[in-house]
Design goal:
Strand order of the largest sheet: 1-3-2-4-5-6-7
Strand content: 15-25%
Distance between the termini: 32 Å
Largest sheet: 7 strands, mixed
Structural class: alpha/beta
Number of strands: 7
Shape: globular
Radius of gyration: 17 Å
Number of helices: 8
Length: 228
């Protein structure tokens, strides 16, 4: 890896890695870090180019973020972990679990999508407009270049075929908000294509882990206790 990812860590038992969404950092999971550290070694990463992690020179793609996760686990000598991903973090987690099924003990996919069509158009249209504008000014402004990279992740990625999800072997929980920005039909498609996956819909928006954390944490905890 050309960079060292920043991370927060709490607890000292089974590794439990948290992957945040686009434009965020590990602090998004403040209510999960505290809650799950009683039973797990919770590790909240800042993805490349997010939070306190440097951008580096490698491509700014979901596939690269998945490679970064592999390198991170290798560096910390973590052979396998429970992985919880939110939004783009869920997309990274999906890619990672497809490519390295043996390194995932349990998988929680919160608000992920297989492709940009999975996002409701009311959310996606402003993102597409913002991306076009940022791309136009990217060569003149570092801020616009950064915005173009961030928005580009949501316009051009991810690109996961439903049949690829069959490669995931870990117990999996697919969880979303009842008013999520991801189409409910799309979330159900993910759950239907991951072998044996459970589906949970929590009352709330895309940001249930942060805004409805009591209900979210309970769903995750019950899943982890019952599935393994």
């Amino acid at each position: 890896m050309d960079i060292a990812l920043y991370y927060q860590e709490k607890g000292n038992q089974e590794p439990f890695i948290l992957l945040h969404g686009n434009g965020e950092d590990g602090t998004y999971f403040r209510h999960q870090i505290e809650y799950f550290s009683r039973r797990y070694r919770v590790i909240a990463l800042d993805t490349r180019g997010h939070g306190k992690s440097p951008r580096g020179t490698a491509p700014f793609t979901i596939a690269q973020f998945s490679r970064d996760l592999y390198d991170f686990m290798t560096d910390l000598e973590i052979p396998a972990a429970v992985i919880l991903g939110f939004s783009d973090g869920a997309n990274i987690a999906m890619q990672f679990a497809i490519k390295h099924p043996d390194k995932v003990k349990a998988l929680i996919l919160n608000g992920g999508n297989l492709n940009p069509d999975g996002v409701k158009r009311t959310t996606q249209i402003p993102i597409e407009i913002g991306y076009k504008i940022a791309k136009r000014f990217a060569s003149k402004s570092p801020g616009a270049k950064r915005s173009a990279e961030m928005l580009g992740l949501m316009v051009n990625e991810p690109n996961i075929e439903p049949k690829e999800l069959a490669k995931i072997t870990a117990p999996t929980l697919v969880i979303c908000g009842s008013r999520d920005m991801i189409k409910e039909s799309h979330t159900k498609k993910i759950a239907e294509n991951v072998p044996g996956a459970e589906l949970a819909i929590v009352k709330g928006t895309h940001f249930i882990a942060n805004k409805k954390y009591a209900a979210f944490n309970k769903e995750v905890e019950v899943f982890l206790q019952s599935s393994r």
